[in-house]
Amino acid sequence: MCLCHALGSTRCHAWGDSAVVPMAGCGLCKRADQDAVTFGETCRQDTLCIHENCLYHASGLIQRSADDQGFFGFFLPDIEQELQRVAQKMCCICRQHGASVRCQRRRCSHTFHYPCGRERGCISQFFGEYRSFCWLHRPKQRVRGVPQEHPNCAICLEVVEERPSYSTVICPACTSSQFHRDCIQHLALSALHFRCPLCRDNENFQAEMLRLGIKIPNRVEIWEEVGAFEDLYEQQISCDASVCLCPLGREHSDNLGTRHFCSSIAEDIDSWECNICSGAGNGKKCSTGTESP
Q1: 5-133: which CATH topology?
Q2: Phi then psi dihedrals of residue 58, to 5 deg
Q3: pLDDT tens-place string over residues 41-58
Q4: pTM above 0.70, yes or no
Q5: What's phi and psi for 252, nearest 5 deg?
Q6: Which of 70, 154, 182, 286 is least buried, going by the fewest C-beta atoms within 10 A?
Q7: CA separation for the pair 212, 123 (Å, rounded)
Q8: Any alpha helices (H) in 121-256, and if so which ranges?
């Protein structure tokens, strides 16, 4: 997936564009905003600038490839065709042309820009067919929260509504944790393992948040792709004692750190720490073979 504009660059390396040009408005929603929480990432080719979330929810677009190809898996000819299709379609919220998102409820004619829909209380889902619904037909929570005199958001601790609404969502598992929609969306985008902050439920909580239009990225895959844990797989293969007594040299050892023999540790001791690792004065043995105080 293209991270160029998410990182503040005006180049799009996914398309090989090396020219630095001023930011333009998204071809679909016409806004130049780069708020990743609302619009997702941003990519451009030549004069065309596109928000990720606007692409995913454009009713006439089909993602034909993987996220890291083209514009988040959408190809330029398809995007240009969609821009022509929606050119005269009016947004039922802002009354401007270019509305590309259509309510999926049967016989509903509401069409809107993706960010306009968010501001009006529409819901766009980030799974399956990526369906969108207007404020009249959006999915609603049927759970009843645990009665509280002054309910607060479990994340920001500010006041929330007493019952589920577009701006207030409830954990379906414990029904006692309530959140602002924006707070839970920020958490979903930043948490490595997204779950209810209070009861720690995962499966039911994620399924309900997806149904309510919360975008949940696959954080595990993202961390693996950038090699965040590569250092955990590195193994030290040489002895690091100040004087190595092995006749075959330091590199011969297949143990970690310092050899037992080189560090003068008794054979019956199977666990030790140097002063640095355990804190000054508390070490059981130090790596040079000197007894700790």
Answers
A1: Herpes Virus-1 (3.30.40)
A2: -70, 125
A3: 888 887 888 899 999 999
A4: no
A5: -75, -30
A6: 182
A7: 7
A8: 181-190, 203-211, 219-225
